[in-house]
């Protein structure tokens, strides 16, 4: 059953991951009379609630000072790689998006810590970062879950906020602002299906429905068929990009899919396509990767670099394409990553062994690595930060316990998506176009967007992107309600 557009003065947010929640929060702070958040799943939180490494920010009061962290922008540009061309206007636009991300990172941390009450006092250095700038809490709750649950709770205390789960947006409703060859659609609402009922809602729209890494037989198969058979950290759910392209939105970098190097292989369910992420902070706090008992890579290289190194090894062929790589944390790293380690042990993904119980090759690797760390010998793979590794390579190490697990590369994040500008507006023009063509009434934030991360997203920047561009989009959408009277 269909209905006409309901009269209302609401900002409509599609998707209840962190980008959607941040947009809803900003819209309410900008005095929107109402915010309706639509989520197709039964529970809110999206993939954001599973994020485990933390959120980037620089410079922040939680980082060791001085000196101030001034390399976040350059690290992000470097990580984006060849996707950033040498010529304008595309280079200017891509770097402009990165500048917004990094320049507003400090205020994003302040917002979460001061306004939402999230503990972000623990700092780690992840792969591809020049310094430690990835924030998480000291408690047992992973950062994604902590941020999402606290922000959602605060939103639900506001009478102007309404969350509707089990509601799938099936169409963007648009009108034509003008006639003639230059006529452009303006988004004025959405059609929503809930059970057998289809209704319509009116208002400016913020799209925050996430990426397509779990859309194995859909968008992933279309843009990256070579990744068939590789497991994923994402739920098997279709991407919603087609709803945006139907009204003229342009896509960019859709073949740029991030393979996270470490998804846990559950010993009791080895062939499950859905994997738990082995958080990058495990390596940041000192963890090493082993193949047949030997190290083979700088564990703090970018995700792209580490994944590539693993995928050059021989995979275990079966129902899934997987690699049998061991992650190993010494006692210091286990303690520093204690909340994560406890959860992974509970899930049966990590186990403890005495060093003396390891095979001979692994014992030799651990001993030689520990001696190098203790004596400050340059690492053969170029690793320069060793987290909280404490083993020193002596005989006494044999009775100490390490944590070990089986990990494999997994599809994790899609850098491609719809083209946006620095205001979060969805564009009907490409990044290389001379002039922007904005689709009025429509904003996007989070993994549904493209153009920010290029070839590779730095660990800790997905939650940050959600907060920074979600807040921008929500504020902008609320301003349209004011502008429209």
UniProtKB/TrEMBL annotation:
SUPFAM superfamilies named in the record: FAD/NAD(P)-binding domain (SSF51905), Succinate dehydrogenase/fumarate reductase flavoprotein, catalytic domain (SSF56425)
Record key words, sorted: FAD, Flavoprotein, Oxidoreductase
Highest taxon listed in the record's lineage: Eukaryota
Pfam family, one: FAD_binding_2
Known cofactor(s): FAD
Cofactor note: Binds 1 FAD per monomer.
Catalysis: reaction(s): succinate + NAD(+) = fumarate + NADH + H(+)
Ranges for domain FAD-dependent oxidoreductase 2 FAD-binding: 11-463
Documented EC number(s): 1.3.1.6
Family affiliation: Belongs to the FAD-dependent oxidoreductase 2 family. FRD/SDH subfamily.
Function in brief: Irreversibly catalyzes the reduction of fumarate to succinate.
Protein name per the record: Fumarate reductase
Provenance organism: Sporothrix bragantina
